[in-house]
């Protein structure tokens, strides 16, 4: 963010720079964030208020599952900018409504420029809605996914230390596939676990480390 200069005295403003060797970016507000959340206001707001916070309800978890699936092969910024359009197109991600979609709904979605028009992912969403309904007999989607929470969470101190897959995400992916879910690969499920607070991969030193209340904050040594 560029600051205005002038002859009038101004309050000191924290410098913008890189925090040590971690790769974190220190913003003008003095808060350290990873590069992906340090520039774009939309991504910064998402990082500061939502990413990594626990999601415990069925509809919320179904939405995250669907959006992570659509994100595959694309940037998260693309999905986030289309999020409200996705919500409108998929009836606020109500599994009962989505599971009842017909061919006419598929055509409607394929014609909606507000979302990612990928037929395979649209069909997978309808399929996953039906699978979500079936999971209610086992406690529900959110409870099922949370059952794969590992005993420990990563504590990355640099960008290179942030994992993109884990034993837990591999196991979750396998279990969901066995239940009939699609577009739930290990990397996608790892991203889902990060986004919903099941693991905490905020860099040690980020102002959001430990924000979920699920995992303790690990401070730099």
UniProtKB/TrEMBL annotation:
Protein name: 3-methyladenine DNA glycosylase
InterPro entries: Adenine_glyco, DNA-3mA_glycosylase, DNA_glycosylase
Species per Swiss-Prot/TrEMBL record: Bordetella bronchialis
Gene3D superfamilies hit by this protein: Hypothetical protein, domain 2
